[in-house]
Amino acid sequence: MAGLSNDFRYALRGLRKSPGFTVTAILTLTLGIGAVTAVFSVVNSVLVQPYAFRDPGQLIVWRETIQELSDRYPVGPDNYRHYLYLKAHSKTVADAAIFQNASFAVGKDHPQVVSGLNVSPGFFSVLGISPALGRSFLPDEDRKGKNGVIMITWSAAQRFFGPDADALGRSLPVGGEQKTVVGILPKTFVFPLVNEMPGGSHPAEISRYEVFEPLVPQDQDITADDADFSFLVVARLKPGISVEAAGGELDGMQKAYSAANHLSVHLGVVVEPLLREVTGSISKPLWLLFGAVMGVLLIGCVNLASLLLARSVARERDNAVRAALGASPRKLLQATLAESLVLSVVGGLAGILLSFAGIRLFVAIAPANLPRVNEVHVSWPVLVFAAGLSGLSALVFGGFAAFRFLRANPQPALQSSSTRLTSARKATATRRLLVGFEVASTVVLLIFTSLVARSFSRILSQDRAFNSEGVIVVEADLVNPTYNQADEAASAAARSNFVDRALDRLRSIPGVQFASLTSTMPLTGETNLYGMYRADHPLPESEMPTANLRNIGPQYFQAMRIPLAVGQEFGEDQREHPDRAIISQKAAKSAWPGENAVGRSFRINGRTYTVSGIAADARVADLKIDAPVVYLPYWHDPPSTVFFLIRTPQPLEVLAPTIRRELWDLDPQVAIPVVKALDGQINESLAAERFQTIVLSSFGISALLIAVLGVYGVLAYSVSLRTQEFGVRVALGATKHALTRLVLLGASGPVLAGLAVGAIAAMAATRWIRSLLYETSPFDPAAIGFSIGVLLLAAFLAALIPAYRASDVDPMQALRQE
Known about the structure:
By secondary structure, the chain is of the alpha+beta class.
């Protein structure tokens, strides 16, 4: 212990005498370990940590597949009838529950919209969750007349009833009806956000489910195989049953069911663990970010190894004296590693502190609908990981210099300077290899960054066929009893009446140019997908074209500035002809390839329409998908959730209060959860891609800077060793240009070798990120060329300063040196 204490005191004295080296090493480690710890905290919280349910590894989500649509929609939501069949006959599933996303308008006047789920009564027992207060739903509460009960989260109970109030058994206005709170969930309960359509997105305004209501199936849901596929199923496996075994059994049962009942489509089932279902779409981007930040740390460690190697040459005579006086190779190794350990401990502690700020920054710029983003924190496993990483870094960057002493012979080191010069040149050769490795690693990271950035730029620059500038989106939820009566015709008339009056009021606001509506929030993915049936040309299910159904109002195409290739907007004069439809060009080409679609009839969602117009292929569902769309006038089926689209030159902040006042004057019980610019909705839809691009770019720039420092350090050190040589060359007539060229050529070796190796490695690895790229090849020459060009330019600039110093050597002073 006394020896170790001396080694650490010696290391501290040595580091204090070299403040430049010490600060550089600690900063490099702090940034590297801090970034890795922050990103690992995110990966651990989002992808690794199980949910706080009983035996979470036994929880699965199953989805249905339709073979005829598998090329476009590999998996989809569930059918209620099929859920009942599989639940009743499965031998691998202990229990299952079905659920559906829902929005609840809570409150009487000016209600707020709260995210929640409609769930079957056994939902919480499947999860293994018991209410903190009260009870779960009873088996018969999934029937009309008995479903006037809700369960709420602990935070919702405090918000709606106050922190000290007893919410259990009290009534809460939900959707204009009084619902009784029968259960309050534990404080720690969080059910992850899921979407019926894979790849669909949740609005950024809503981050957690807070209200749960019994799911009341319609009669056709229970009896029809072709009823809505709009549910999700969570199930608990029997003990000892694997996910693969359950998937095989359920898929076989569903296929047998399809054949036995002579269904028009071939159905199947796909099973995923609950955690993978929630994080499947973001797991690869997060692991990519983790790999990128580990690459930055590795590059930093290599750079530090290079610095320590140069430092070891400078201290070679000192260590030779210690060896001559009896220090064993183990003692020398221990003393050298002590210095590395001090650096790693200080850098690791500073990195852990930095990671707290890094996590806050990460959460601030991360997409709001990133799963479990509110749960990200530095946990004990993360701290253990950071400590292990610090220790490993000490071994990695200190090992090169330390083990060099084991092979050193003290006698030559105590003799002539030429011997030391030879030793220094050997160290320089090793450092050149390390620089080549740095350059190769940096090239891989820069190419990854360039590909992701180029993909993001393609999304932003493509033709959307609509103009979002100056458009305000207003969501109005018609969920109170006035618009949801037992008589569906009366409900539709009430919704239509509200929409008509609302449009009149919105259009009368000063500064409003156009006002219309749509049934679906723009840029939330493909929804309401239906087949387009042609009676004159029937097709099998596998060949039938599908389209996204949108109910719209007059002035929709003017408000969105979507060009109409043929036909005109829906007008008030067409209310007597609710069978008219406008379809997108892609829908027209899919349903009537090589034919004129105008005037042709087709059936969608159970009703027949005639094509009265063809619109441009506007990317209103997703900027990355050119989805076919069928536009129908809203008055034939007024939606319960309306999204008004208002084009105006006035700022959102000025117009928003007026919009809310006008709508609440019509009906104060209408919920208005969203009033925002359409540009803001576009930004939210691209939040994941933007976040990925920003973080990867920051890591790429960091790696580039570290690599530049490595090139500069090696060349600067090499020039210092060759001062006498350069003096002789100048004395013999070498020009400054010749010396500059000589140094630059010396730098080109490790840089070009690293570029070649890195480019080959990147081309082999970029196949892994193919699914993350939009209209960008993993071998995109522009991205690869840009990355290599940037690194070459940066390396050239880093080499210029040492090259200039070499060319400015005074031969008289150089020749007087030892």
